[in-house]
Amino acid sequence: MSRFSLGIAVSTADTECEASLPVVNNPPKSGTTVPDEGRFSLIMRFQSGGMEDQRATVPQPITEILGGPDLFINMGSTINLTCHVRYAPEPPPTMSWAHNAQVINFDSPRGGISLVTEKGYVTTSRLLIQKAVQADSGLYTCDPSNANSASVRVHILNGKNRKFRSVLLRVTVKVSRQH
């Protein structure tokens, strides 16, 4: 068992205590001051001489794009990609989006691309692309600055491709039968 000690002085109305966080597993990542994932034991020593031991599990941040791993969008429709970041130590300072490994430029001549990000316990970032065209097909990646990235593959349907319509129909039937 590795030990990671965090000297915190906590003042309350009735007493003062010091807290140390011994790490039961998962030592801190390089460059971080507090481990961000694992099981921890919080031992508080009170001025009165008493002690209290609390245990907690801190989950790893989770990033996901709703509807993935493949999304089928009709040509001319609006692409709405919604990325959720949960369990991050704080809301991500920045949320980047990429299309086929190229950071998306919101001032591009294509136009019609916007981003709405709501920060909180669960941070939500919505990438909206108006009037989808074939060039919008590909791999989209949501990359929060303090958590792992997530990706989804977007397929633009032109209405004539029966193969994709057949796949979309099978996916819809499979999902509806699970409920």
Question: What does this entry look like structurally?
Answer:
A 5-stranded mixed beta sheet has the order 6-13-12-8-9, covered by helices on one side. Strands 1-2-3-4 form a 4-stranded antiparallel beta sheet, with no helix packed on it. A 4-stranded antiparallel beta sheet has the order 5-7-11-10, with no helix packed on it. It has 179 residues and is mainly β. 9% of the residues lie in helices and 44% in strands. The chain has 1 helix and 13 strands, in the order E-E-E-E-E-E-E-E-E-E-E-E-E-H. Strand 3 and strand 4 form a beta hairpin.
Draw up the topology in text.
Elements: E1 8-11, E2 16-20, E3 38-46, E4 51-58, E5 62-65, E6 70-74, E7 79-86, E8 95-99, E9 102-103, E10 113-118, E11 123-129, E12 138-144, E13 150-157, H1 162-178
Parallel strand pairs: 6-13
Antiparallel strand pairs: 1-2, 2-3, 3-4, 5-7, 7-11, 8-9, 8-12, 10-11, 12-13
Question: Which features does this protein show?
Answer:
disordered C terminus; single chain; 5-stranded mixed β-sheet; 4-stranded antiparallel β-sheet; disordered N terminus; 1 helix; elongated; 13 strands; about 45% strand; mainly beta; about 180 residues
Q: What is the β-strand count?
A: 13
Mean pLDDT: 75
**Class from helix and strand fractions:** mainly beta
The share of residues in helices is under 10%
Radius of gyration: 23 Å
Strand content: 35-45%
First-last Cα distance: 44 Å
Taken from the alpha-carbon principal axes, the silhouette is: elongated
| Main pleated-sheet profile | 5 strands, mixed
**Which parts are unreliable, with pLDDT below 50 for 5 consecutive residues or more?**
1-11, 13-36, 169-179
H/E series: EEEEEEEEEEEEEH
